[in-house]
Design goal:
Blueprint lengths: L10 H9 L2 H13 L7 E8 L2 E8 L7 E4 L1 H10 L3 E6 L6 E6 L8 E11 L3
Length: 124
């Protein structure tokens, strides 16, 4: 196998910077475990719409499909996008998505991918 030396290109250095160290990976795993939802935990989420970021929180339950308590600006954004909007829920089959609840049936419910999720409180 021939090694080609191209001046000014240091591919190995770039790879080392992106891979990280074992300590970095351990920290990520620990943070992941700390952020897991448990029944009774308060969770703050954000998701992006075409009109901007929406924020809210919900109380994690065993049943799933929790109602999201949206802040006033977020609810207004959703109502501008969907005049029949009457709230939002954590998607029942995929907890990485938000399902917008509508008063009228339009052949499906709008969904948004959750941008960030932070467990803010312990068991209530």
């Amino acid at each position: 196998m021939a090694v080609i030396d191209i001046p000014g290109v240091d591919t190995l250095g770039d790879q080392e910077e992106t891979l990280g160290t074992a300590d970095d990976l351990r920290e990520e795993v620990v943070l992941d475990i700390m952020q897991q939802e448990i029944v009774g935990s308060m969770v703050k989420i954000e998701f992006e719409t075409s009109l901007g970021l929406c924020t809210g929180h919900y109380l994690s339950t065993e049943l799933g499909h929790e109602e999201i308590n949206l802040d006033a600006e977020s609810l207004e954004r959703l109502r501008q996008l969907f005049p029949a909007c009457n709230g939002a829920f954590v998607h029942p089959n995929n907890r990485d998505w938000v399902e917008v609840s509508l008063a009228e049936i339009i052949g499906g419910l709008p969904e948004y991918k959750i941008y960030s999720r932070v467990v803010t409180g312990g068991i209530v």
